[in-house]
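Quick start: what a row looks like.
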Amino acid sequence: MGAKGTEVEFSGNLRKTGGIVNVALKSVLFMGRIEAEAEKPCANWAVISITEGGAGLAQLREGWGAVLQQEFHDIDEKKPDEPYVLFSEAQAQEIVRFVNMAEDKGLVGVLVHCKAGISRSAAVAKWIAGRYGLFFPENYGLYNKHVFKLLARIE
């Protein structure tokens, strides 16, 4: 892929699901929305597209293996009288199901994007990397802690 995001590479893990051994996802990449919208699609990659209310859905190019679009803001907690949408347990479950489906379809990678490619997308990429034993930059601390904790708790 010609992306400029942060890529997390394959470690060679296998995953057993229902008696069938699948090759685990090989790569996860996180980036900003503008880069994701310009990215050349790969039929063997999935995309998790994260936008926030009022910004509209990302205009991804056709040809990706699978696409999940979610809307939530880059916040760690919901405060009264604020219009922001907090990442929910239902959204975390949807991401887990989507990643499972991508693996079952034999897709080799997941591109995750949010507005800037720094916090929300990094949290999802960090969770995917941990699940599949992929590298994630050890000192990268800008990921959204709430998003990561919810995903880790779901499994």
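That is the whole record. The CA atoms of residues 41 and 64 lie 5 Å apart. The chain has one domain: 6-154.
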